From TrEMBL:
Family membership noted in the UniProt record: Belongs to the glycosyltransferase 39 family.
Stated name of the protein: Protein O-mannosyl-transferase 1
Enzyme class: transferase
Organism: Nesospiza acunhae
GO molecular function, one term: dolichyl-phosphate-mannose-protein mannosyltransferase activity
Keywords: Endoplasmic reticulum, Glycosyltransferase, Membrane, Repeat, Transferase, Transmembrane, Transmembrane helix
Residue ranges crossing the lipid bilayer per the database entry: 99-120, 154-174, 186-203, 208-226, 246-267, 578-600, 612-630, 642-662, 669-692
Length: 726
């Protein structure tokens, strides 16, 4: 039984020395001097704030994309023992000793280093020679822009890593298709493709472009499979389901998990949660949750409430009134009702409180048992401090003359009767008998007499003049269709009124409630709201000194100064390797011209290259050329501030095309130049290496260069190399 012990146990393994060497060189290239400079570099000032918020478990919203990339950066901070205490207030600020600089920059650097062996393996899986694969890896290794971007707390290197991993995984899966379908390795690479795609999208939405490319490629390959008569219908269905599971279902589930972890980590209230709904804010620890904890859930007749506008941007505001009235005449000569002003006020205030009154009764307290207000019920809203009724009538609003003025009614004994009945419409109701709920219900107030809808129009326009204390206008919107969020309100603070006397009621309005009812949101509700905010919340795009257009990127007519030493001339710039970028443009142009030439010739039944070479040529175009196109062309349609680093995923694919075109030219078009081939390649690669070395001081920030040396590096007039005045 133990006879196998008589012989030694031998384990053999194949080691690709080239792959190992490329990986080691990539690690040295990206990790060398990673702590330098020990100062905030460009967008570290932006991402560092989010890392600090993760360390302190404070909720935030970043409109630039999903949270997975931020969590990876925060993981580096966590592993380094970062406590989150650093101001992140300016580029160039020296890091304090509590900031683990090496740890924070480690994951982007590792991702950038691993892109080198990934490039090698991608070309191997595309069935190109070892020399072509080695050339692609070395070009990625010596690309100055990729080195710079991967050595700091930035996300592009992580994004590119997951994109290349997804491409490699799909190619390995596809190459196993004919001989090892549904094997363990087949499943591994298929599943890893979906996981890598999800991670790429989770880092930045730019990853969606490459994900769509791989989905289209998989769809095309499956279309070809349908025409294979050797595959049964059952086998085709299994292939379809496997791809659907691995490339759609699992990535969607993983994408949701990023948000689940994000929300689980960030459970404390902070400055960013104010753009979220009251229900979301109340689910966070501290902040609004402190105020609303224990409030009654169901709004009843006699309830004392504050009404927050659901839109919440550009600022949150609450329905508000005060004793001041509208001026008899506005600056443009139009008259007003001279009634009490109603506004939307962006701060919490006792004048934000309203009482829900039953029109058929005089009492302003909640009965026992409470009578809940339901969808479709008619109510009056009484201002808590002034006891005047919310009213609207056929008088033009001060800033929106096409809409009705909203006021609190004052009886001047003139022919303008009160019109203060409002119908409660719960927009997010499940049935027509739903009860109006605190925080959870989004409500429209429809004026019974005129059918106008209560709307915070000031959120999309100017604020009121000095007579309105620069508060936001509230109007009755006539002929309203749909449910724009500026017309929706939710109850934020709520208590059951008990005091019928006005003075006692004013004291009551300042007192907290103590009833204990939970209003926790489900994960899917929080995810839906957060995802919508990320997609729709846009910061004001302003001109940046280093912003550029997509046309500037191809010829690298722009650069970005990332860091400047406060005393010496040492500086770091995002600049590509000029030789590599020029070669990539030339390779793309040659590929396009050759493809058009081959297509025209094939149309005439002239086949210049073998069929298998043609199929390979088209496959490479789909992956490398398609990868460049989908990661570059969409920027021409975007209305946002653009920077050179947005081009890095596209140029990575374009660089992979260089050795592909060179090998194709050697194998099929320039065989008679074989004797000069190696000399030309060595000369060209020496040029690439020379440019890499020349610009290394601007890539790594050291050594510091003299002004004359810096001027010599300004190869284009459009480059902004920083030179101190002597």
């Amino acid at each position: 039984m133990l006879g196998f012990l008589k012989e030694p146990v031998v384990v053999t393994a194949k080691i690709n020395v080239s792959l190992v060497a490329l990986t080691v060189m990539g690690l040295i290239n990206r990790l060398w001097g990673l702590c330098y400079p020990r100062a905030v570099v460009f967008d570290e000032v932006y991402y560092g704030q989010f890392v600090s918020l993760y360390m302190k478990r404070i909720f935030f919203v970043d409109d630039s994309g999903p949270p997975f990339g931020h969590m990876l950066l925060a993981l580096g901070g966590y592993l380094g023992g970062f406590d989150g205490n650093f101001p992140w207030n300016r580029i160039g600020a020296e890091y304090s000793m509590n900031v683990p600089v090496w740890s924070l920059r480690l994951l982007p650097a590792l991702a950038g280093a691993l892109c080198v062996p990934l490039a090698y393996q991608i070309l191997v899986e595309l069935h190109f020679s070892h020399c072509a694969a080695l050339g692609a890896a070395l070009l990625i290794l010596l690309e100055n822009s990729l080195i710079t971007q991967s050595r700091f707390m930035l996300l592009e290197s992580i994004l590119i890593f997951f994109i290349l991993l997804a491409v490699l995984s799909y190619l390995k899966f596809y190459n196993l298709q004919k001989h090892s379908a549904f094997s363990g390795s087949w499943w591994f690479w298929l599943l890893l493709t979906g996981v890598a795609c999800s991670c790429a999208v989770g880092v930045k939405y730019m990853g969606l472009f490459s994900y769509m490319l791989l989905l289209a490629t998989a769809g095309l390959h499956f279309w070809h499979m349908i025409g294979d008569q050797n595959l049964s219908n059952v086998s085709l269905v299994c292939h379809f389901l496997a791809r659907g599971l691995a490339l759609i279902i699992i990535p969607m589930g993983l994408y949701l998990s990023f948000f689940y972890v994000h929300l689980a980590l960030l459970y404390r209230s902070g400055p960013h949660d104010q753009i979220m709904t009251s229900a979301f804010q109340a689910s966070l620890e501290g902040g609004l949750a402190r105020i609303t904890q224990g409030q009654p859930l169901e709004v009843a007749y006699g309830s004392q409430i504050t009404l927050r506008n659901v839109l919440g941007k550009p600022m949150q505001c609450w329905l508000h009134s005060h004793t001041n009235t509208y001026p008899i005449r506005y600056e443009n000569g139009r008259g007003s009702s001279h009634q009490q002003q109603v506004t939307c006020y962006p701060f919490k205030d006792v004048n934000n409180w309203w009482i829900v009154k039953d029109p058929g009764m005089q009492q302003l307290v909640v009965s026992n048992p409470p009578r809940p207000v339901r969808h479709g019920h008619i109510v009056q809203l009484v201002h808590g401090i002034t006891t005047r009724y919310l009213n609207t009538h056929d008088v033009a609003a001060p800033l929106s003359p096409h809409s009705q003025e909203v006021s609190c009614y004052i009886d001047y004994n003139i022919s303008m009767p009160a019109q203060n009945l409002w119908r409660v419409e719960i927009v997010n109701r499940e049935s027509d008998t739903d009860v109006w709920k605190t925080i959870l219900s989004e409500v429209r107030f429809v004026h019974v007499n005129t059918s106008a809808v209560l709307k915070a129009s000031g959120l999309s326009g100017a604020s009121l003049p000095e007579w309105g204390y620069r508060q936001l206008e509230v109007v009755g919107e006539k002929l309203s269709k749909g449910y724009h969020q500026s017309m929706l309100w939710n109850v934020e603070e709520h208590r059951y009124g008990k005091s019928q006397e006005q003075k006692e009621r004013e004291v009551e309005l300042h007192s907290p409630t103590q009833m204990n009812i939970s209003k926790n949101l489900s994960f899917m509700a929080k995810f839906t709201e957060l995802q919508w905010k990320i997609l729709t919340l846009k910061n004001e795009d302003t001109e940046h000194k280093y912003s550029s257009s997509a046309l500037d990127w191809i010829t690298m007519d722009t650069n970005i100064a990332y860091w400047l030493h406060p005393t010496s001339g040492a500086q770091i710039h995002l600049l590509g390797n000029v030789a590599t970028w020029a070669s990539a443009n030339a390779a793309a142009l040659v590929y396009l011209c050759l493809s058009l030439w081959y297509l025209l010739r094939r149309r005439r039944k002239i086949y210049d290259i073998p069929e298998d070479a043609w199929q390979l040529w088209m496959a490479v175009g789909g992956i490398c050329g398609g990868g460049w196109a989908v990661n570059y062309l969409p920027f021409f349609l975007m209305e946002k501030t653009l920077f050179l680093y947005h081009y890095l995923p596209a140029v990575t694919f374009q660089i992979l095309l260089i050795p592909v075109v060179l090998q194709h030219l050697r194998d099929h078009l320039c065989r008679y130049l074989a004797s000069a081939e190696y000399a030309l390649v060595v000369a060209w690669f020496s040029w690439v290496y020379f440019v890499y070395c020349t610009f290394s001081p601007l890539t790594y920030g050291q050594p510091a260069l003299a002004p004359a040396e810096l001027r010599a590096l300004r190869w284009k007039d459009t480059w902004n190399i920083l030179i101190r005045k002597q």
